[in-house]
Structures are given as C-alpha cells and as structure tokens.
Design goal:
- By secondary structure, the protein is mainly alpha-helical.
- The chain has one domain (18-416): Flavocytochrome C3, Chain A (Flavocytochrome C3, Chain A, domain 2, Orthogonal Bundle), CATH 1.10.1130.10.
- It has helices spanning 3-22, 44-48, 52-59, 79-82, 84-89, 108-114, 134-141, 144-147, 179-187, 197-203, 231-240, 262-266, 270-273, 278-282, 305-309, 317-354, 359-381, 390-416; strands at 213-215, 220-222, 246-248, 253-255, 285-288, 291-294.
- Strands 1-2 form a two-stranded antiparallel sheet.
- A hairpin with a 4-residue loop joins β1 and β2.
- One heme C binds at residues 29-31, 44, 47-48, 51, 54-55, 58, 161-163, 165-167, 172, 174, 197, 201, 204, 279, 283, 293-294, 296.
Length: 443
C-alpha cells in the first residue's frame, strides 16, 4: 500500500470520527422523520410502513447467494461435509448431527425450527438469538424462560430477528434489547443504556454474535467475559468453573462448544483499533433516492466492497478482495490441518484407553485435548475465516496445534510408558520471562 493512500485513508477515518462525534454522542441519529411507532411493535412490516428504504434492505436478506464470496455467503452449506474433522470433534453432541453455514436474519425462525440439533428435550434458551419476541417474554417470565421446554414457547415466537431487536420503535434510536448482553455489560461495569453511538453500532451485533453458555439451574444464557475477550481469557473462565457442554465418548473428557465469537475475535484487530464498528462494514452508508441511509442488507461485505471499504481504502476493490481471500485461504488451510491433528489426539487417547494405559497420564492427555479442541473450535465457529483478526486467529490455531500434539504424545506415553522429550529454557533472571532467541551459553 502506498504511503499517500494510507494517509488519505487515515484522513478519511479522522473525518468519519469527527463527523460521528459532531452528530452527538448518544442518541441522535439520521432518521429523516420520527414515526413514533408504538412501544412493543415487533413486526418488520409495521416498521417498513414508515422506513421503506431500510425495510427493502432488510428483505434483501432473503436472497440466498454466495456471489462475490468464497468462504462466506448466505447459502446454507453443510459445514460437516466441508470440514470432516468437525464431525469427529463434536462426536456425542448435537453439532455432529447438523451444522450449517449461517444465512440472513430473516431466516432465523425457519432455521432453528428445522435444525436436527433441536429434540424433544431442547430448552427455550435456543430461541434467544432467533426472535424479536424474546426480550418481551423474558420480561414476563424472568429467568424461568430459559429452561422452559423449547416446544412450549413455539407459538409465542412469531417474529424472526426484526427492527425491534436493535431499535426503540418510538425514537428509532439503537438500543440493547437482549438480556444476556445487558447482564454481561453490567458485570463489566458498563451501563447498557449509556453506550456511545459508535459503541452501539457494534454492541447491537454483540447481542448475538458472541460466545455464550447456559449457566446454573435455570440455564440462563450468559457471556463468559468476566476475565476478558480473548480465547485465552474465555478458556480461563471455563477452566476455573470446570465447565463442560458434553462428554466426548472417545476422548473421555468434558468438552466446551464455542459459538460464533465474532465480537470477541474483532477485539484488538487493526480495524477495531482504528475505531471501526461492525456496522461500518456490514451496514455501510449509501445514498438512496437522495437520502443517506444505512444498508440494512446485513451480509458479507464482499458483496458491496465499494460501500463498505472504499470510504477509507483507496485501492482497487478487486485488489482489496484479493487481500481478504489471501487471509481467508491461509486460515482455511491451517484450520483443516490443525483440525486433523485434533482428531488424531482423540484417536490416540481412545487407543490408549482401550489398551488400559496409565490413568494419571491419560488424564493429562485428556486435559490437553479439551483445551486444544476449544481453540480449534473457536476458529471454526468464528464466521469470517480469519478476516476479523488474522493475527489472533493464527495464534489461536497455533495454540490448538501445540496442545493437540502434546495430547497425542501424552496418550502414547500413557500406553507405552515412553515420554516424549520436552524442553524449557533454563530459568535464569535474564530469560525467565520471554524465551530468548539467543543460543544458550554453556556454563
Ligand atoms: C473491516 C470490515 C469489517 C468489520 C468492522 C466487521 N466485519 Fe464481519 N466480515 C467482514 C468480512 C470481509 C467478512 C468475510 C465475508 C466473506 O467471507 O465473504 C466478514 C464476515 C462476517 C460474518 C460471516 C458472514 C458470512 O457471509 O457468513 C459475520 C456473521 C460477521 N462478519 C459479523 C461481524 C460482527 C458481529 C462484527 C463486529 C464485531 C464484524 N463482523 C465486523 C468485514 C468486517
Ligand atoms: C438477535 C440476534 C442477532 C443480532 C442482534 C444480530 N445478528 Fe447477525 N445473525 C444472527 C443469527 C442467528 C444468524 C444466522 C441466521 C441463520 O442462519 O438462520 C445471523 C447471521 C448474520 C450474518 C450472515 C448473513 C449471510 O448472508 O450469510 C451476518 C453477516 C450477520 N449476522 C451480521 C450481523 C451484524 C453486523 C449485526 C449488527 C448490526 C448482527 N448480525 C446482529 C443473529 C443476530
Ligand atoms: C441488527 C440491528 C439492526 C436491525 C435488525 C435493524 N437496524 Fe436499523 N439501524 C441499525 C444500525 C446499526 C443503524 C445505524 C445507526 C447509526 O449509525 O446511528 C441503523 C439505522 C436505522 C435508521 C436511521 C437511518 C439510517 O438508515 O441510518 C432507520 C430509519 C432504521 N435503521 C430502520 C430500520 C428498520 C425499518 C428495520 C427493520 C426493517 C431496521 N432498522 C432493522 C441496526 C439495525
Ligand atoms: C473506517 C475506515 C476503514 C474501513 C471502512 C475499512 N478499513 Fe481496512 N483498514 C483501515 C485502516 C486504518 C487499516 C490499517 C492501516 C492500513 O493498512 O491502511 C486497515 C487495514 C486493512 C487491511 C490490511 C490489514 C489486515 O488486517 O490484513 C485490509 C486487508 C483491509 N483493511 C481490508 C478492508 C476491507 C475488505 C474493508 C471493507 C469490508 C475495510 N478494510 C474497511 C481502515 C478501514
């Protein structure tokens, strides 16, 4: 990238930030008129009567196409066929039955109703990110909602994700409606009703595009953010509470299932550090009939690089797309390889257990496998194939690979009694912290 292009980009960014700051931090938005839609309105068509341009964009999410994308797109492709290792690491759990590429927001109800992961025992927590009806129902039922049988509340879930998931109908201001995010922010000491406008342009998405688990008796949907947002922080959180989603029949250990951590992965990336929000790329501004609106066709930005990226980048859109695919292809290749090593670790443990291997060493192998699996699952469950934060995703893949190899070696040790050599730099005052790249001096 040429220097003047970067400067131009940064100037554009600064301008954007200034424009946003000038718009008034919290509440004011570019609504051309305020329709005062009654509180409690949920149906997108009702909002559409007053905001037809945004409604047209929203309806475009029904279009199913992968055009312009390679690793994303809106078609419901089967991830288990594409990535055979997933079926092995999720053995014994619903995700080994059916696991699909995500599609547009208008399909959430259809998709959750038909997925094979839902059975007669499923709970209502599974509706949480799928319907505009949920916040109202949680208000009525309290935490009892989450553990109520899924099928019992089916008739109440009349809407998919609609305008009401992100907007206050009266003012059309952005609001955090989902209880799990409100609770998580409060635990972090952040008031969900006092977020800045630019924060809201990310946090409305963080209502759902995040890792979560079901906590306690009531199975309350909870975000594991108390130690931070990185994969290490989230794993620490789960390790400390000894959390598991299910027992892997072959690995013989409780595993954690990671879910779409887009928000967490984005933290620390070049774009997050530059002040971008999810909406900057996924809901870019565009001119329509002389009016500046936000695109409500929430999909892969590769379908509209001009609107999403050219506000800052001055390169050719095709060049920029090549850069995205470069990151994504490299991530996909490594994800496949690391996934296979994870399966080998599971196999090695199963073989060692079959051969009545040393139980204490097997236990060590299982603990390592559980961690390795958490890291590879994080990368597989994140939906940008590395783009949201290439460095963090490569680090996460590397950690998974290291741990999976260690697990494999421990399993072999459990079976054969032969420990693989390990090496630690000698702990001296100088090199105790980060390992030195200098060859160690002979004493
Ligand atoms: C700098 C631009 C940018 C920002 C900011 C950004 N994304 Fe993305 N996002 C992308 C790109 C590029 C892809 C890859 C699309 C593809 O593979 O076709 C993507 C992919 C996705 C996908 C998968 C789309 C698909 O087609 O399956 C989701 C979901 C997503 N992003 C959510 C988010 C969320 C939530 C945030 C904020 C936390 C965010 N993104 C921030 C550019 C961005
Ligand atoms: C109430 C929960 C919820 C909110 C809020 C939400 N999403 Fe989603 N999003 C989902 C779910 C669930 C899916 C998958 C739907 C399916 O496959 O049926 C999805 C799918 C997507 C996709 C894939 C679309 C495609 O064409 O493949 C993108 C991109 C996306 N969301 C981005 C965002 C962004 C950006 C925001 C914030 C502006 C956001 N979402 C807010 C729940 C949510
Ligand atoms: C996933 C969250 C989300 C959903 C769902 C959503 N919006 Fe928005 N909407 C946004 C964001 C983000 C903005 C940009 C706000 C800003 O920049 O202050 C926005 C802006 C707007 C604006 C202000 C003008 C503009 O275009 O920037 C209107 C009006 C609007 N939306 C209407 C709707 C309608 C109508 C629907 C349903 C058909 C809807 N929205 C669904 C997130 C959402
Ligand atoms: C609001 C400004 C802004 C927008 C919008 C934006 N970017 Fe960037 N982007 C930056 C800045 C700033 C950098 C870091 C400095 C640089 O490389 O110019 C960057 C860096 C990058 C890089 C190199 C770093 C890396 O992580 O690989 C790529 C690739 C990139 N952006 C792609 C995109 C794509 C694709 C889009 C649209 C989907 C997009 N950007 C939208 C500001 C933006």
């Amino acid at each position: 990238m040429k220097k003047h292009q970067i400067l131009f980009g940064l100037a554009a960014l600064l301008l954007l930030v200034l424009v946003m700051a000038g718009c008034g931090a919290k509440t004011e938005q570019a609504v051309s008129f305020r329709a005062d839609i009654p509180a409690g309105t949920l149906a997108a068509e009702e909002f559409g009567k007053f905001y037809p341009k945004q409604y047209d964009g929203y309806k475009k999410m029904a279009e199913m196409t992968n055009e312009g994308t390679k690793h994303g797109g809106s078609e419901e492709t089967d991830k288990l066929t594409q990535w055979p290792f997933l079926k092995e690491i999720f053995a014994g759990y619903g995700f080994a039955k059916e696991y699909n590429e995500d599609r547009g927001h208008v399909y959430t109800l259809d998709d959750v109703k038909k997925i094979k992961r839902i059975n007669e025992k499923s709970i209502s927590a599974c509706w949480t990110c799928k319907s505009a009806n949920v916040p109202g129902i949680v208000k009525e039922m309290g935490d009892a909602y989450y553990n109520t049988n899924f099928h019992e509340l089916k008739s109440k879930m009349t809407e998919p994700i609609t305008c009401a998931n992100c907007h206050d109908p009266k003012t059309m201001n952005l609001v955090i409606t989902q209880p799990p995010l409100r609770n998580a922010l409060q635990r972090l000491g952040k008031d969900p009703d006092k977020l800045t406008r630019q924060e809201l342009r990310t946090y409305v998405c963080a209502q759902c595009h995040v890792e979560y688990y079901f906590a306690g008796e009531n199975k309350v949907v909870t975000f594991p953010w108390d130690k931070g947002f990185t994969p290490d922080d989230v794993l620490d959180y789960f390790e400390e509470m000894n959390f598991k989603d299910w027992d892997h029949p072959k690995a013989g250990v409780g595993e954690i299932k990671v879910q779409h951590p887009e928000f967490e992965t984005f933290q620390g990336s070049v774009h997050q550090a530059a002040g971008l929000a999810c909406a900057d790329c996924h809901m870019p501004y565009k001119m329509e009939g002389g009016e500046k609106i936000s695109s409500h066709w929430v999909t892969s930005p590769l379908k509209h690089i001009k609107e999403s990226c050219m506000t800052c980048h001055r390169e050719d859109p095709e060049w920029l797309k090549e850069r995205v695919l470069y990151t994504q292809d490299k991530t996909a290749e490594m994800m496949g390889r690391v996934g296979n090593v994870n399966v080998e670790a599971i196999e090695a443990i199963a073989v060692a257990a079959q051969a009545n291997g040393n139980p204490a060493v097997l236990d060590e192998a299982r603990k390592l496998q559980r961690k390795a699996q958490f890291y590879i699952d994080w990368v597989g469950a994140e939906n940008s194939m590395g783009f949201h934060n290439p460095q963090l995703i490569m680090e996460t893949l590397n950690k998974s690979l290291d741990l999976a190899n260690q697990a494999k070696l421990k399993a072999i040790e459990a079976q054969t009694g032969m420990a693989a050599p390990t090496w630690q730099p000698p702990a001296t005052a100088e090199n105790a912290a980060p390992a030195s790249t200098e060859p160690a001096k002979k004493s």
